[in-house]
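step 4 of 6: structure.
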Amino acid sequence: MAEKNGALAADAAGAAPELTLERVNVAPAQTWNRLRTNDITLTVPAHSRAGDVYFSLPRLFEGVECGMGRKVTDWVESQAADARYVEVPRGERREEPIVVAVGTGDVADTGVMVRSGAEATIVVAAGAGEKDGETGTSASLVRIIAEAGARVHLHEYVGVGAGQQHLESVGISAARDARVDVHQYLLGGGTVALGFACDLAGERARVDLGCRYHACGTEVLDINEVVRQRGRNTRSELAYNGVLEDAARKGLRTTIDLVHGAKGAQGNEAETVLVLGDDVVNKTLPTILCDEDDVAGNHGATIGSVSPEQLAFLASRGLSREDAEELFVRALYEDALMHAPCPEARAVVNDSIGDRPLLNHGPDDSKGVCPQLNHPEEA
Amino acid sequence: MSTQLLNVSALSAGTEDKPILHGVDLAVGAGECHVLMGPNGAGKSTLGHVIMGDPAYRVTGGRIEFDGADVTELSADKRSLAGIFLSYQAPVEVPGVPLYSFLRSICQMRPELKTTARKFRERVGAIADQLELDQGFLMRELNVGFSGGEKKKIEMLQLLLLQPKLAILDETDSGLDVDALGIVSRGIQAYREQVGGALIVITHNTRILERLEVDRTHVMVHGRMVAEGPAELIADIDKNGFERFERGAGQDDAACAECPGCPMVGDAE
C-alpha cells in the first residue's frame, strides 16, 4: 500500500512521512488513460496525529460528495488539526463572511450548514502571506449543506508559491430552491488541485460557477468539477476563463450529470482558454451525462491565442501585441481584486501578483479598483 | 487656414488579394470636421482602417502623413499613441477583459493621461454619466454581450477618455435608436468642445451631423474620391443620392491603371 510504504521509507530516512494519493480528482466518466487527463496523483505529508483530540463534523456531512474524492477527504480529516462547523440559522442573512484562511502547511476541514431560507458567504483564501522559496502542502476541505431556499456565495482564492502544493476540495448539497454561486480565482502555485462537486438535489436548485485561472512557468493546475442535477428544473451554469503561459500544464474535467428524474433540468458549460506559451499543455475533458429525456445540456470550449481582430482592435487603442497579451493576464488579477469579498482574499491576489504590477494598483488604491466597490474607506 | 493634421496623398490599398482604394487624397486640418460619404462598398470604412493602420489592409501606393510625420509604415498601436482614433462600426468583443481594466490600460499607455486610480475612477464615472451609461458596464467584459447601442456608447467613452487629435467615426450612428443617437451626438459634440480634435465622420445618416459644424464633405465611389465640397454638399446628397457621382466614377475607370498594383477598378470591400 502506498501509504504504508511511503511512511516506512520516510521513517527510515528520518524525513517527514509522505503519502501518495493515487488517481484523485477523478471525473465520473473516464477517457483513455493514455491521454493522461482522467486524474492526478499527488504526494502529500502524512503526519501522525496519534493522541490528538479531534472534533469531527456532524455525520450529516459524511454524505456530501466532494470534488477531489474520498481519498482526499480522508486524508484531510486525518491531517487537519480540527474541524470547524458553522451553522447559519434559518432565515438569517449572515453579513460577515465565513473565512477559511489557509497558509503553508495548513490543512483545514470546514463544514457549513446554511439552514432553510438563510444566506451566507464563504471565502477560502489559500496562499496569503506566502514567501518565495517556501515549500509544503496546504489543503482545504469545505462541505456545505444548503437547505431549501438557502443562498450560498462561495469565493475561492488560491495563489500559493511556485514551490508549494495546494489541494482544494469542495462539496455542496443544495436542496429545493437553493441558489449557489461560486467564484473561483486560481492564481498560480507549484501544483494546485481543485475539486468541486455540487449536488442539486432539490427542485429548482441552481448553481452558477465562474472560474478564472492563470498558470505560468512550470506550474500544474488540475481541476475536476462535477454537478449532479437530480432535482427537477435544476440549473447549472459553469463558465471557465483562463490564461496559460510558458510551460504551464492544466487539466480541466467538468461533468454535468443529468440524473434520471431531473425533468426540465438545464446545464451549460463553457471554457475560454488563452494560450500564450509554446510549451503550454492544456487538456480539457468536458462531459455531459444524461439519463433523462426532458433536459438540456451544452458545452463548448474556445482555445487559442488572441485573435487577429482582437489584436487589431486593441492596437487601435494603443496596445501592441505584447501589451495586449499582458492585458489579458492583468485583467484576470484585476477582476480577482474587484470581486474580492474580504481582506484575506485581497491579500491572496496581492501576494500572487509578484513581479506583475497592476496598472491600477497604485498607493491610493489598496482597497479595490472599481467604482462599483464603494469601499467606505475611499469615500 | 488651420494647420494640416492629416494628409493622405495618392493612397492605394486593399486586402492581400483585392485592391480597394485607388489614389485617394484627403487633407484634414487640425480641429476640422470632415464628412466622408458614399454608397455602400465605396471604400469609406477601408480608408478609415487604413489610416488607423489596420494590418488587415496593405498599402500599395501613396503615403499618410499625420501631425507632420510620415506614418504610412507605422503600426496601429503607434498611430493610436500619436493621436489617431478609429471608432469601430462593429466593435470587437474581448472576453476575459473587464471594460474598466481595458480603459485603465489604454490610458496608462499615454503619459499625458496617466493619473491616480482615484482620479481615473472619477473621470470614467463622469464620462459614463455624460453618456448615460450604467457604471455597471465597467465591470463587464469588453463589448461582450453588449447591444449595438451600448457598444457605440463604449466607443464614445473611449473617445472622450483618450482625447485624440483625430477621430475617425466609422458609421457610429448605425443601429442606434433616436435616444441613443442623441446621446452619441452629444458625446461627439463634447469631444469637439472639450478636446478640439479633428473629425472624419463616415456616415449615411445626416441626423448625426445636425449638431456638428462641418468644414468639408468628401464623396467616395469605387475606392476613389470623386467629389469634395462644403457642408452644403451633404444636403445635396441627401436629396439627390450618389447616382451622379457613380456615373462620373464609371467614366474614370480607365485611369485606375495609375494605381500601383491595381490592374482594374476595385469594387471595394
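step 5 of 6: annotate
 - Helices of chain A lie at 2-13, 70-79, 308-315, 321-339, 343-353.
 - Confidence is low (pLDDT under 50) at residues 1-12, 359-379 of chain A.
step 6 of 6: archive
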